[in-house]
Write a structure and sequence with these properties.
Layout (H helix, E strand, L loop, with lengths): L2 H6 L13 H6 L2 E11 L8 E6 L5 E6 L7 H4 L3 E5 L5 E3 L2 E3 L2 E2 L1 E4 L2 E4 L14
Antiparallel strand pairs: 1-2, 1-4, 2-3, 4-7, 5-6, 8-9
Length: 126
């Protein structure tokens, strides 16, 4: 199978991966937060939730997330998620998305990254 076919399947060969320095990785502020509110975004082209997430000392942040296939508001509220909190805010379907919630794309939908046990909101992933 050629690289194009592998890329279409989501498989990337090691030689195609861009190298990142340790400094670049640690420049990304990956933090744990708890979802306080979750509602559908009716303006989004693809079904999405608007999440309000508590990052403890970093405050509340809003995120637009395409999680509706595998999650409901009831399963997201009170759940701890991992997000990048130092990307610039951007407008997503009328919502100021202030952080990027991390997940893994699967054929069934996006699976959220999370923590094994509760940790304080705002904890840094290291």
């Amino acid at each position: 199978m050629d690289d194009v076919a592998l890329q279409k399947q989501g498989v990337i060969s090691p030689q195609n991966l861009a190298a990142v320095s340790v400094e670049q990785f640690f420049a990304c502020e990956l933090r744990v937060g708890t979802v306080l509110a979750c509602e559908l975004n009716p303006r989004a082209r693809k079904p999405s939730f608007v999440l309000t997430i508590d990052f403890g000392p970093l405050g509340l942040r809003t995120s637009s997330a395409q999680l509706v296939v595998l999650y409901s508001p009831e399963t997201l509220i009170a759940r701890q998620v991992i997000a990048v909190v130092n990307f610039p805010a951007r407008n997503v379907a009328g919502v100021e998305s202030q952080c990027l919630v991390l997940g893994i794309e699967t054929p069934e939908g996006v699976v959220l990254l999370g923590v094994e046990r509760p940790v304080p909101n705002g904890s840094r992933v290291s």
